[in-house]
Give the backbone structure.
Amino acid sequence: MPDDRSLAIVGAGWSGLAAAVRACDLGREVTLFEMAGHVGGRARSVTLPHGAPTLDNGQHILIGAYRETLELMVHVGADPDRLLMRVPLELRYPDGSGMKVARGPAALGFAWGVLSASSWSPIERWQLLRTAFGWWRGGMRNPGVSTVRQLCAHLPPRIRADLIDPLCVAAMNTPPDLASASVFLRVLADALFGAPHGSDLLLPRVTLSELFPRPAQQWLEQRGVAIAIGHRVQDVLRANDKWQVDGQPFRDVILACTAHEASRLTQAINPSWSADAASLAYEPIATVYLERRGPPLPRPMMALHMRSDAPAQFAFDLGSLGVAESALALVVSGARAWLDRGLDHLAHTVRAQALSAFPGSFPGGECPIVHAAAERRATFSCTANLRRPSCEIAPRLFAAADYVAGPYPSTLEGSVRSGLDAVCRACTVKNTPQSSA
């Protein structure tokens, strides 16, 4: 490493924490700035008033293909085997329909899951297998279409409704009519046709903050990393061949904050990059937490048929997972139209959906709403032909976040990989004088 090892990281979400851990391992002197009063960004737990349980600001899951995230958890002392429930990918609906991917080699497990899906006709199963393995033989490259809807237009409607649309919404939080076909194929390549167990669902047994952000924060603090919680960076300037972050000099800077904050801080440094970051559109996600008064759900995670009066796509039994006793989390991705009608209206609509889907879990119709959360900018809208900001903003100034240019949609793995990539770039830049950006 060059003599000057100073590195500022602005933002302590999953990307910023990943960058800080990797940089610390490489011998950098890290200072971490976080404008909120906590680490974790948009994937964290929140403490509710009036004795309510600690819940997440939105329900998240991981999958077996999240290799970098799982390795980083182990590195900071968070045991994935203890903190995550690993189950094969299963999209099972309350009426028993759906499919389950078998364990073992990914492609064979997917084929077995399709062939054993009794709710689909033989012709429907054959059409799905022929299409999926056609993508696989083509290297999971885009055949020349824009959206997921166009990519899957010839598949039977029931296959699209039961499998394609839920996978698209869960992975990309973007409607199939708009979602990028290229990114969707990359997700399928890693999850369904990648390494064995890549499609496994990893369901958190603890709140999101306990899963990685707090262990990472403790790991960093034990190594003397300065973490400025509640510090909103006001400016990043270039002076005397150094970057100045609110007047403090640093050799390198990584902006691991939101696109809005990064755009604000880079307006005078790189107007084009700032404009790209500011132009991103977003998709919201809402999570409605209900109190279960009866038996648990048949499975810790279940898919739901989405209709005009039933907005939630997935239900999680947090009691079965050990996160919160007798609590269910119902997730509404792409919730913009519903949130325009009000979060309270959405919560009561989801409550009615849960009563209809799981009547045995709510004897006598008792179904209290514990909490409703909405993340208005949960993910960027992963549309076709999207222009995402690059990692490199200016000499020795980098960006790290799920929205930075890369092959993945807005996911925890995408965030972590972006943070690791930014540190790799910062640590390979020669320590030579640079002109002001």
